[in-house]
Write a structure and sequence with these properties.
heterodimer, A: 255 residues, 4-stranded antiparallel sheet, 10 strands, 28% helix, B: 819 residues, 4 domains, 6-stranded mixed β-barrel, 55% helix, 19% strand, elongated, binds adenosine-5'-triphosphate, binds magnesium ion
């Protein structure tokens, strides 16, 4: 399979009281097109930082992020914002819908920004996406009256608006109950089956049932990178991943 | 469906409709004010010039002793001259409706249907005036108080009197306003004058020669040169030229002062625009700081900086356009009414109320441009944030609140109640917004105080002018006043307790320009025929008042130098004191300089010993030049027992009657109150205008406070919910907001007290220079400093009423879930 994301010696460090603190510490990683990856690790281990480096929201201190042949550090901030709109769909923990726009308008907004979808097709496409997330009947409502799960489905539909090959989701179910979370994971799985590369950060061990790879991070380093089969049993981590992540099982690929 | 970027703009404004409306109102009000002023000024100045030019204004007018029509035909042949025309002016008096004798300037024209220069128009009644009829200038009608077909009594300076019928009114655009000058202008035919003067058979003559030039684009200097050329030619032809006057072509005589008045108003209106820009700034910064997270998300969705700033700039443009939709048409309507209100004061007609397109364009550009400029910084800051920054900013936006020096201070202010301390803390939480809003209020307060300071200054100027006259009534006779006549007058009017003679006469300062003199290597100031050709001469017409040695009658404030030595018994006839108005024409004059003055065709040097302040025409004062010989004096200062306005007006009437009964022709008389009254009328207009504009600015300031308070309330919705949840009562919350308003009012007032002093000083200086050529000395009005504080507290309290009520009514549950 084609490699869609390549991280080379990627580090992000902060200077705190004259000491250098590595939030992400020399990570090398290849992710192939069509992968469905979950990143786990305890709080403060550097998961969000890594996601932000991949999406170009954060700049690396050293190392490279190459996505589909594009080296992100070569892009200017303004170019990067536009590139991201076309290539990466972002899903946030707090949904982040624009409150003054309706559900369908939120989705069209993303298309209006990037202008990759022809003007005439935008509304049609927004409707198709809403069908995909099963919310067509809520198209004309304002986000404030939707439930959390519904909001997140709208946010996912919006992330898909410009048909990006990659979807990054940082704790997409962090604000949802476990039943709702399952529908969201299912949605991601469906999208993955349709060919999207999806990386998600989650504290929810349920997600491991859906993803095909698991990356375990501790102190900014990958301590475990496991390729599962979707059908494979999930006995690997017996303790809450959020708290430990130090008990290493399986194969270590990169460190 | 609309483009979602537009939709977002629109919905954001709609979500903040209350605050958007405040901003729209403020922009509309300020562009309206500016519009009214620009529109009316554009109409007035255009129509004034057009009306004036239509009358074929004279370029140069000569006062000549006597000339006949034959001179006109000869002059027309001269190369530079366009048209020539002639009039005879006769100084006379006319009896007004109220029975007083009023100065009358009679114009005698040869053919009313063939006026070549300074064309008259018939206004009402018949035209031209037949024998025994008189036309009155339309504005002078009100001075006279008469009506068409009334019979009026007239006395000429030469002592002839008659009755004439008012045939109608006419419009003479180039004349100074009759009401302001307190004079009546009348127009009669040659025949009428001949029959008044009983001069049948004698050759009729003119004394005013009017000339226009072929080249309309000459400078004042070039025109003066032409005038001098004509003058010497006339002298060669043995005409006695008394003086000439050069007018700037295309400039109405009032253009200058109107321009000055409008200047003040334009500055005010621009200030309104700037202050309303503060509201735009506050609204946009508040909205954007709430939208930071959204902006980050939109960027994550692929929005460019341009697209994001576009969303917000479009909002500002919508605000501006909505405001303009209100202000543009209403400014046109009100501007026209304003023109209508002003034209009667200026004596010209409006043919078209068309406002030039570019004037409207200016309003559109300011109405949109100023808000756009004021929103530039907040929008740029927000739209250029990186996604990462927007996340950080959002999480930590309130973190600095507790850490400033102020909160340390606030901790120590334990004597204040808790809500008040909270209010203090809240004010510094949004320092920028708080300071800007207070700043606008400060401007409003400073302007209010300045208006009253200026009023007080103007009153002081008037009372100084009034107090500079130690006499009660001043009369000037057409002939020198003999001792016998004086005795008769004193006997006839027993209320006169003392008199003092003076002589008043027109004089001309003949002065060579020192710059020219230096250039030409001619330093001496005495005029010498040979040099006169190469050195440019200034001729400035002034009124000379010659006082008795050690006269006590005048007490004008000294600007420089000294008054005549009152203790001295011998006259110093080579000394003069000049009024500051002379400096308008000869700004280089100084104490100690010797200047040549032509008095009754005699030129001799005088030394300037003092400069005094005197409202009115350029004047010079001499000491015993004529009055040494009592019989040469033609004027009389009269003192009465009490100098109240009423007594003096009464005395003036008595003197007029006595003079009439004893055949002593008066050329004019006035009481010590008269001059001041006219000036006071002008000042009232200035004061009302300043006050009106100040009220508009106070309104904008109140809008600003309401906006800020509402914004603060919105931003602290959750916090007040918490306060309520832990038991704060509605009253405590209201106290909190009230204290915030008071703090604004007090701070605004404090700084306004300081700001108003240079501001008032500047306006006083400028107004003084504009009207009397010398700065008005600033007089402060102490009471207004005191009254402004409660007024400002009232304004802030009124403006915070709505937020005060809404905060107490809001249910806790709603407040706590507010995002
Ligand atoms: N701007 C910064 N300056 C200094 N340290 C930072 C900064 N941003 C992040 N860090 C640190 O980097 C480390 C990694 O943070 P990150 O947000 O990536 O953790 P995480 O794995 O996403 O945690 P969580 O599961 O709680 O979301 C943390 O220790 C954090 O304190
Ligand atoms: Mg995180």
């Amino acid at each position: 399979m084609k490699k869609i994301i390549t991280l080379k010696g990627l580090s992000k460090s902060y200077q705190i009281n004259q000491e250098t603190f590595f939030a992400v510490n020399h990570i090398n990683l290849d992710i192939e097109q069509g992968s469905f990856v979950s990143i786990i690790g305890k709080s403060g281990s550097g998961k969000s930082t890594l996601m932000n480096l991949i999406s170009g929201i954060d700049q690396a201190t050293t190392g490279e992020v190459i996505i589909d042949g594009v080296e992100l550090s070569q892009l200017k901030t303004s170019q990067l914002d536009i590139w991201r709109g076309k290539n990466i769909g972002l899903v946030f923990q707090f949904f982040q819908l624009i409150p003054t726009l309706t559900v369908i308008e939120n989705i069209v907004l993303a298309m209006d920004f990037c202008k990759v979808i022809p003007k005439k097709q935008r509304i049609e496409r927004a409707k198709e996406l809403l069908i995909k997330v099963d919310l067509l009947d809520k198209a004309q409502l304002f986000p404030s009256i939707l439930s959390g799960g519904e909001k997140q489905r709208v946010a996912i539909a919006r992330a898909l608006a410009n048909d990006p090959p990659i979807i990054l989701a940082d704790e997409p179910t962090g604000n949802l109950d476990s039943v709702t979370a399952k529908t969201i994971f299912n949605l991601f799985a469906t999208l993955n089956a349709q060919g999207k590369t999806i990386i998600l950060v989650s504290h929810d061990r349920d997600c491991l049932q859906y993803t095909k790879q698991t990356i375990n991070i501790s102190d900014g380093k990958i301590i475990e990178h496991r390729h599962d089969r979707k059908s494979a049993e999930t006995e690997t981590i017996d303790e809450d991943t959020t708290n430990t992540g130090s008990k290493v099982k399986g194969v270590k690929y990169c460190a | 469906m609309l483009n979602t970027l537009w939709l977002k703009t629109w919905r954001d404004l709609w979500q903040n409709k209350g605050r958007s409306t405040l901003v729209i109102l403020s922009i509309a009000l300020s562009t309206f004010t500016l519009g009214v002023i620009l529109n009316s000024y554009a109409i007035l100045s255009r129509e004034m010039t057009q009306d004036y030019l239509q009358s074929n204004p004279t370029a140069i007018s000569f006062s000549i002793d006597k000339f006949s029509r034959s001179l006109l035909t000869k002059l027309e042949l001269r190369a530079a001259i366009g048209k020539v025309d002639a009039r005879r002016t006769v100084h006379a008096e006319i009896k007004t409706q109220s029975g007083q004798w009023q100065n009358l300037l009679l114009f005698v024209l040869n053919d009313y249907n063939d006026i070549k220069l300074d064309v008259l128009e018939s206004e009402q009644g018949s035209w031209p005036p037949k024998d025994g009829e008189i036309l009155i200038e339309r504005q002078a009608m009100s001075v006279l108080g008469g009506q068409i077909n009334d019979r009026v009594n007239i006395k000429t300076g030469a002592g002839f009197s008659t009755q004439l019928t008012i045939a109608g009114s006419t419009h003479d655009v180039g004349l100074a306003q009759a009401e302001w000058e307190n004079i009546v202008y009348g127009y009669i035919s040659e025949k009428t004058l001949t029959s008044i003067e009983n001069s049948m058979g004698e050759q009729f003559y003119f004394n005013q020669l009017k000339v226009s030039l072929k080249d309309q684009n000459l400078s004042l200097e070039q025109m003066t040169e032409v005038a001098e050329g004509i003058q010497s030619w006339l002298t060669e032809q043995e005409y006695q030229v008394k003086r000439f006057n050069v007018a700037e072509v295309g400039e109405h005589p009032h253009a200058n002062i109107t321009g000055g008045m409008f200047m003040i108003q334009k500055v005010f209106a621009l200030l309104c625009c700037l202050l309303s820009a503060v509201l735009v700034f506050n609204l946009m910064s508040a909205m954007l700081s709430k939208h930071i997270k959204q902006i980050g998300v939109m960027k994550a969705l692929g929005a460019s900086n341009k697209q994001i700033s576009g969303i917000y700039y479009r909002g500002v443009i919508i605000l501006g356009l909505t405001a303009l939709a209100i202000s543009l048409p209403s400014a046109i309507v009100v501007g026209n009414r304003y023109v209508d209100a002003l034209t009667p004061m200026m004596n010209f007609d409006i043919n078209s109320y068309q406002v030039p397109f570019w004037i409207l364009l200016i309003q559109i550009m300011l109405g949109i441009g100023i808000p756009l400029l004021s929103a530039y910084l907040p929008i740029k800051k927000a739209s250029h944030m990186s996604i990462r920054e927007t996340f950080i900013e959002y999480e930590s936006s309130d973190q600095h609140a507790g850490q400033s020096w102020f909160s340390h201070l606030n901790l120590k202010l334990t004597f204040l109640s808790h809500p008040v301390r909270l209010a203090l803390r809240n004010c510094v939480r949004q320092k920028g917004r708080f300071l800007l809003t207070t700043g606008v209020l400060m401007f409003a307060a400073a302007l209010l105080m300045a208006s009253f300071n200026i009023a007080s200054t103007m009153n002081k100027v008037i009372s100084v002018e009034r107090e500079s006259k130690n006499w009660g009534v001043e009369v000037k006779f057409q002939q020198a006043l003999s001792d016998k006549n004086l005795q008769t007058l004193l006997k006839a009017v027993p209320d006169i307790i003392a008199v003092e003679r003076f002589k008043r006469i027109g004089a001309t300062i003949i002065e060579q320009d020192p710059n020219d003199a230096i250039q030409q290597g001619v330093i001496s100031s005495s005029v010498n025929k040979a040099n006169a050709r190469i050195v440019k001469l200034h001729k400035v017409q002034v009124t000379l008042t010659d006082l008795k040695v050690n006269s006590e009658m005048l007490n004008h404030p000294l600007i420089d130098g000294r008054w005549f030595d009152k203790a001295s018994t011998s006259s110093k006839i080579n000394e003069i004191v000049i009024s500051q108005m002379v400096l308008k024409h000869l700004p280089y004059l100084e104490i100690g300089m010797t200047i040549d003055i032509e008095i009754l065709a005699n030129t001799r040097p005088f030394k300037i010993v003092g400069i005094v302040q005197n409202i009115g025409m350029p004047s010079i004062y001499s000491n015993g030049y004529f009055t040494n010989k009592a019989t040469l004096a033609n004027g009389l200062y009269i003192l009465a027992n009490d100098h109240s306005e009423k007594t003096l007006k009464q005395l003036s009437v008595e003197i007029g009657e006595a003079a009439e009964n004893n055949n002593m022709a008066l050329s004019y008389k006035s009481t010590a109150w008269d001059g001041a009254d006219v000036v006071a009328g002008h000042f009232d207009i200035i004061f009302s205008l300043m006050l009106l504009l100040t009220v508009i600015i106070i309104f904008i300031a109140a809008n600003g406070i309401l906006l800020t308070m509402t914004t603060n309330m919105l931003e602290r919705t959750r916090e007040t919910g918490v306060l309520k949840a832990i038991g704060a009562s509605g009253r405590e919350l209201m106290t909190m907001i009230f204290s915030e308003g008071c703090l604004m009012a007090v701070l605004a007032w404090l700084f306004a007290c300081i700001l108003t002093i240079p501001l008032s000083y500047g306006v006083a200086y400028w107004l003084g220079m504009l009207t009397i050529q010398t700065p008005f000395p600033l007089t402060l009005e102490p009471m207004i400093f005191i009254y402004t504080l409660p007024l400002m507290i009232m304004v802030t309290t009124l403006a915070s009423l709505i937020p005060m009520l809404s905060i107490t009514k809001q249910p806790i549950r709603e407040a706590l879930i507010y995002e």
